[in-house]
Each structure stands twice: as structure tokens, then as C-alpha cells.
Sequence to fold (147 residues):
Amino acid sequence: MKSKGLVLSCLLFLTTAIYAEPPAERQRGTQGLVPFAVSVRNTGSRPLDCEATTAHWYSVALGTVAGGADLSTTLWKNAASGEVFILNRRRDRMPVQRFWCGEEGKSWSTRSDISMPTRRDSRPSPIALSCASGAQGVVCQPAPAPR
Fold:
């Protein structure tokens, strides 16, 4: 009886392995993607941390912005799908799920979410923001694009 169970388990495993999808190949580089700049000017006095959340709740620190300073980064968009990516050191495409800036040391609880251009079939425009920490947390507003 035990051997029948073992044989059935092996058959089930082999059948599952045969029909399983191959692992998704990690996409690298910028081919087919459109770059767009994101710039944040800290108009307040308290330092701000800006971060991006990628798949699986992993946060990528983009930098700390002192009062009166600017932070700039380039993100990438697949215009056909609407997906926005940040590239790691190996140029792997990491999908951006959320982008925010908040007070240094407590950026999540004081964050201001920054909307990403996820509409399909559209070219992204640069995002320029003026951010400052206030009584209710960080507030970001559109600003003229830096030159």
C-alpha cells in the first residue's frame, strides 16, 4: 500500500514538473522603455528621505534631501503596459509600486505619496515636486521642472 502512495506521489510530482511554466526570465536594461526624471526640492528645513517600493515590499532608498536641496532620479516606463521601473546596479528592471518622500527617520509614517504615470500608451512627462515637512507630515506639490 505504501508503494502505491509513493508511485502516485512521484507521478503527481513529475506531471506537475512537466506542465509547470518555465521561470520568468528577468528583464534587464532599458530597451523598449522611456526614461523620465523625478526631482524633489525640499523647501522645508527638516531633511526628507525619498524611497520607492518595488515588488515584494522591498524599499529602495533614493536619498536624503536636506532643507533647500534637490534630489533627482531617473525612472523608466514601459508605455505599452504602463509599468514603471527603477533599475538596480545590474540593470534589472524592478517594478515601482509606490514612491514617497517623508521626514528623515520616519519617512513611512510622515510620507507624501508621489503618483507615477501608469496610464498605458502614454509618454511620461518629468515629475518635479516641491516638498516640505509640516504638522500633518510631508506635503509635496507640483513645481517647475529644474533646468
